[in-house]
Every structure is written in structure tokens, then in C-alpha cells.
Amino acid sequence: QITLKESGPTLVKPTQTLTLTCTFSGFSLSTSGVGVGWIRQSPGKALEWLAVIYWDDNNRYSPSLKSRLTITRDTSKNQVVLTMPNMDPVDTATYYCAHRSDQSIFNYWGQGVLVTVSS
Amino acid sequence: DIQVTQSPSTLSASVGDRVTITCRASQSISSWLAWYQQKPGKAPKLLIYKASTLESGVPSRFSGSGSGTEFTLTISSLQPDDFATYYCQQYNNYWTFGQGTKVEIK
């Protein structure tokens, strides 16, 4: 059974760095074809893909946010970490992590964590 | 970037109705399209991938079709549990979501 859970601060101040952790179980990020991605959703808005890290430690970022995002993994802890510096109120959103299957689809999602950016 | 556009943005329907949602991609994405259902306060749930393949456990009243740039999600007979927001997503080049279609009670 695949599960994922996001953790991190629910409130950050403008200009601060956001660090979110995705802790997963039921699969290995060392398995060929597998990945873990981050997707966010601003209140009342659509979903926006942010980043993905693959089984071979390669990663990809949304072109519009590439300069601000870093995704890393700790396979021994079954964790993936997303870092986003210089947070702004427009970054207020629910941040989800999701399992990326070998068919490139996000088929399992965490429950999400609402991050509010406010002074 | 590949853009995906859904229509309509809101759809009012009754239980038992046949419902169709359309998704258009800004360039050909072959069949690399997925559909998700999202309920308030919950994570999206995968319904269909590769344009027409039903995810395991998803009721057969959901179906998807299309290829290239035009795709549809059809719910053959709307059930009370189906009132939600639906998103299409292309995965031909990275991942891009449509803006969503809210299916509400008429």
C-alpha cells in the first residue's frame, strides 16, 4: 500500500525559505521508473506541478519556478525534500507530494499541507 | 510549455445525467493525458490515464477518449458521489493541469 505524507511549516513569512518533507511508504525510490513529485494548489485555483525527482536521482523543475526550487531525496529515510526560497504571499497554497509511476502519472497523492505566506 | 484548456469551467447536472468535459492541448500530446477528480479539502484522485485507460477501482461509468489535442471525459450516469471538480493533465512534456471543471448539482 503506497502512502505519502507532507510535513513542514504551515506559516512562513515573506522572504523566508520553505522546506517541505514528503515521507512515503509502500515503494522504493530506487525502483526503476519511479519518482516523487510536488504539486501545489493556490486557494480556489488549479493544480500546478513544481518538481519531480526520479529513481536515478535526476530531477526536473517547472520552467516558471526552476530558479527557486530544489528537490532532493534521502532513500534511506524514504523522504523527498522540496526547498523554495524567497517565499511570497502568492506562494500561499496547499502543497502535495505524489508518487510518479513508471507510466509518468501521479497515481498516489499525499493529503497535502496548506502553507500560508504572511507577515 | 504545453497548455491545456478545459471546458466548461462549471457544469450543472442532475443525478443520472450523462456528463461530458472537454480538454484541449495547445499542441499534440498523443494520448498522454490523465483525468483527476478532486473533492473539497482532498487530494486529487486519478481516474483515467493514457487518455482512456481506467485506473483500477474507478467505476466504469467514467470513460475517456481522444488523442492529439482534443480529449473528453464522460460520466455515463452521474451519481451523487461524482459531484466534484475534475482536472485534465498532460504528461507529454512535464506535467500541466487544466483549470478544472466543477460539476455541481442542478
List strands and helices in order, with pairings:
The complex is a heterodimer of chains A (119) and B (106).
Chain A lengths: L2 E5 L3 E2 L5 E8 L9 E7 L5 E8 L4 E3 L8 E5 L4 E6 L8 E8 L5 E4 L3 E5 L2
Chain B lengths: L3 E4 L2 E4 L5 E7 L7 E6 L6 E5 L3 E2 L7 E6 L2 E6 L9 E6 L5 E2 L3 E5 L1
Parallel strand pairs in B: 2-11
Antiparallel strand pairs in B: 1-3, 3-8, 4-5, 4-9, 5-6, 7-8, 9-10, 9-11
Describe what this molecule looks like in 3D:
- Chain A is mainly beta and 119 residues long.
- Chain A has strands at residues 3-7, 11-12, 18-25, 35-41, 47-54, 59-61, 70-74, 79-84, 93-100, 106-109, 113-117.
- In chain A, the strands form two sheets. In chain A, strands 2, 4, 5, 6, 9, 10 and 11 form a seven-stranded mixed β-sheet that branches.
- Chain A is globular, with a radius of gyration of 13 Å.
- The model of chain A has no long low-confidence stretch (mean pLDDT 96).
- The mean pLDDT of chain B is 97.
- Helix content of chain B is 0%, strand content 50%.
- Chain B is built from no helices and eleven strands.
- Chain B is globular and about 35 Å long.
- By secondary structure, chain B is an all-beta fold.
Helix share bin of chain B: under 10%
User: Main beta sheet of chain A, described?
Assistant: 7 strands, mixed
Q: What class would the helix/strand composition of chain B place it in?
A: mainly beta
Overall geometric form of chain B: globular
**Which structural class should the secondary elements of chain A be placed in?**
mainly beta
Radius of gyration of chain A: 13 Å
Range of strand content of chain B: over 45%
Report mean pLDDT of chain B, rounded to a whole number.
97
Distance between the termini of chain A: 40 Å
CA-CA gap between termini of chain B = 36 Å
As a percent range, the share of helical residues of chain A equals under 10%
